[in-house]
């Protein structure tokens, strides 16, 4: 089954999510701006990007996801992705700053996301979607674990935090469809590659620099959720 954008999502619902996302995002912005997520050895300069991008990002994502899923599964599916979008923005900010994906965010996200997706399946009766999400989450976790092992042997900066995040990406995208997972994975590597090349061309870094991959995984995920892909999967 491939989920189509919900044409029945009323404009006021989307608008309300934008406003709510902005308010929730502002709370998150203040927490992130304090730098409380940093540990003792993470004492570098603060991020160059203004923290006000956080509430803007949450507001836009909540509006887009509300439009995308709306009343599907008796309105039970939208909250799953709104909650994950909130976590995704926090993870992207932290990983971009200190190149670390905190387990305190990624691990609790697993039971929360599974529970919310299970409620959506209970409301719609589509248990195949939940089983597909579990399979794609496990497969993507396994693929990233293999990549992390190879990267460790080669001395690369690909970390096991990305492995934990990969399982979440597989869960969130697999519920919609296997093609959504493929798009998210492909987009992550393409976007990270384009960013790396741009840094080299602009002389903002070297080939030896480690690039935070988490933000690109999350951006690929969110792109795949918003953009409908017509495939037989």
Automatic annotation (TrEMBL):
Cell cycle as UniProt keyword: no
Residues passing through the membrane, by range: 12-28, 49-69, 75-96, 133-153, 184-202, 211-229
Gene Ontology MF term list: aspartic-type endopeptidase activity
Annotated keywords: Membrane, Transmembrane, Transmembrane helix
Keyword GTP-binding annotated: no
Signal peptide: none
GO BP term, example: signal peptide processing
Domain Prepilin type IV endopeptidase peptidase: 84-196
GO cellular component: plasma membrane
InterPro entries: Prepilin_IV_endopep_pep (IPR000045), Prepilin_peptidase/N-MTase (IPR050882)
Family per similarity comment: Belongs to the peptidase A24 family.
Protein name listed in UniProt: Prepilin type IV endopeptidase peptidase domain-containing protein
């Amino acid at each position: 089954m491939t989920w189509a954008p919900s044409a029945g999502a009323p404009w006021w619902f989307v608008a309300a999510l934008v406003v709510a996302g902005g308010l929730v995002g502002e709370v998150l912005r203040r927490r992130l701006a304090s730098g409380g997520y940093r540990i003792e050895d993470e004492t570098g300069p603060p991020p160059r990007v203004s923290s006000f991008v956080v509430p803007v990002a949450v507001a836009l994502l909540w509006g887009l996801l509300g439009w995308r899923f709306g009343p599907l599964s008796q309105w039970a599916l939208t909250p799953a992705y709104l909650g994950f979008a909130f976590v995704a923005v926090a993870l992207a900010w932290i990983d971009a700053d200190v190149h670390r994906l905190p387990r305190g965010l990624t691990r609790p996200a697993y039971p929360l996301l599974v529970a919310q997706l299970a409620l959506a399946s209970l409301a719609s009766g589509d248990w195949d979607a939940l089983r597909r999400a579990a399979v794609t989450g496990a497969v993507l976790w396994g693929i990233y674990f293999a990549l992390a092992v190879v990267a460790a042997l080669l001395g690369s900066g690909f970390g096991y935090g990305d492995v934990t995040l990969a399982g979440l990406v597989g869960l969130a995208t697999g519920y919609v469809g296997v093609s959504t997972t493929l798009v998210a994975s492909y987009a992550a590597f393409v976007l990270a590659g384009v960013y790396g090349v741009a840094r080299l061309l602009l002389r903002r870094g070297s080939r030896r620099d480690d690039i935070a991959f988490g933000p690109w995984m999350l951006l690929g995920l969110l792109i795949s959720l918003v953009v409908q892909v017509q495939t037989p999967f």
